[in-house]
Amino acid sequence: MSALQLIKEKAQKDGQKKNEETISSVAAEIKSKIQELKSKIEKERQTFVKALSKSSKECENCLKDEITKFQEVYEKFCKEKAAHLQALKDTISKFEEDKEMLFGRYEQLRKREKNLISEQEKFCADRISHLGESLKKKKQASHLKIEVLLYFTNTVMSELF
């Protein structure tokens, strides 16, 4: 081989070695950047997970508080509802009792009125009957007086003539 060719081969080997060193250097730089990016992404993910976890805990605590408040309000509502229903039942019961009492009084009043009307009818019938008898007696008395008068008149007239 000639010296020229040896130089050429050596230059090629040196060039190839430099290329390999450059490629190796760039590859190491790329690997380093990828590693940095991985670390940065992982750190951002952890920060996001922490924020999400914190938000989730806050939401869970708020929901627990609201559920507790709701249960208290619901229990209070149930108690008040029961009290109102009982008051309503008591009111209805009271008015039912009053209605029964008033109905009883009405029935007594009706009986009393019927008795009073019956007594009044009897009284009126008796009075009418007595009036009839009285009128009959007066008529008979009048009739008798007229007969007596006629008798006396006839007697006086016959004595006169």
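^ that was protein a. below is b, sequence first then the tokens
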Amino acid sequence: MHTDPGNWHRIHTNDIPTIIKIVFWGLDKRLAQRKHFPSVNWSVSYSKYTKVLESHYETTEPGFVELRTKTKEILQKEEDLAEIVQLVGKSALGESDKITLEVARMLKDDFLQQNGMSEYDRFCPFYKTSAMLKNFVAFHDASSKAVATGDITFAKIRDSASDLMFKLSQMKFESPTQGKDSIKAKMDALYNEIQERFRQMVE
């Protein structure tokens, strides 16, 4: 939460606990050790502004709230699978769980991780955030539907769609200086490519 330091003297001391509780960023030592910045643990951090802003989100970028919910579900499931992976390894997981782990990794490395010193990642316009999530979720959902047929494995997806996975990892490098129309056109093109590739894969 950004607050003008000069205004703190105007805030009644009884209000301070309430203000502090509105937004909480839980710093994570493990993320810092991995050079993952910002080192904020998404699972313990929260904001009470979430619901308040939903109407704005839907007006500005329709579908964003659902994408955010889906993203949180993927990350939460990955945490739930962590103990199983430690005990028996990734190879023992079902195909859909392998997809969850891979997409969660991409979300952490290629979406949540930020390089604030770079031009492309110094800030992220809302339209870029929404478009990136749309493509990550599209890849997750298309992959999940593909393995549900029983004829396609995650290994096959990884081999057949490695170029798409690379393109997903490169979305963050699109600089906001290009302008909204240019970035959205590129993101939409990737979304359509994901849909078409998986349509061909399951035929």
